[in-house]
Amino acid sequence: MRNIGKIISIIKNMHNDQNIKNLVKAFFNTKEFEVEEIPESNEKTPDLVIIKKEEKTILEIKTKIDDKEYLENIKSEIEASRIFIESNQINRKNKYTNIISKGVEQIKELDQKGSFNVLWLECAGREPEYQAALFKCSLLGIRTAIKLPASESRECYFCDHSAFFKYKDFLDGTIIHWNDRALLYLNPFSNKYDAFNKSELRKSFSRGAIDPIDLESKSIIYLADCDIDRNNQSEVGIYLAKKYESEHMALLDLTHISASTFISD
Q1: Gene3D superfamilies attached here (predicted)?
Q2: Which of 3, 69, 119, 144 is the 20 to 30 Å CA partner of 172?
Q3: Residue from 101, 10, 115 nearest 62 by CA
């Protein structure tokens, strides 16, 4: 349940870009990185360069907040009926894909052969954990795969269209930050994958780095490593069933349900 006062607070106090940038700078300072702001110009360039042991990483920060109109609608619904219930699928969303795309376009303006390229995705809405899940689906093309008739289920990476595959030439990894968690996701399609996996940045996320190849090797996820058009999900399912020795593989999206209500003082 969410307090209506918190919703109103979010409406009145939209996140400031500089505040988020300062948060990110402080985060890397605690990990003993040198952080340099990239001067603003007429072109939309990335935000920061982070440096450690002469290793450079170009970092662009993108923040997802809720639309003011959306929050006002929730407030109105709660005032009218005292409760607002919402149900949405957890899958790749155009709004989230577009945020990633804009971030990559800014990275391209400063892409350097000797540097790594990373996006920082800040989840700053009323449901930050849900936002993080949507960014994850958009980056990694995740759907839930269920072995039938065994009913064994796992997340399947790259089952759907993924930003990591689309931007494999420009994106080595992405940090998703929500609440008090920050996870680094490695892009296995990047031509710098091996170097990035040994980088100072990767080492600084010793307990918070997500490597799809490593997860599959440990039987934690399924991995759709095939050339099949992702618009043809039935063929992807057939491939996965054969790869993981199942009679049939069902592909589906989980559902996120949230409720907001009024709590009197």
Answers
A1: 3.40.1350.10
A2: 144
A3: 101
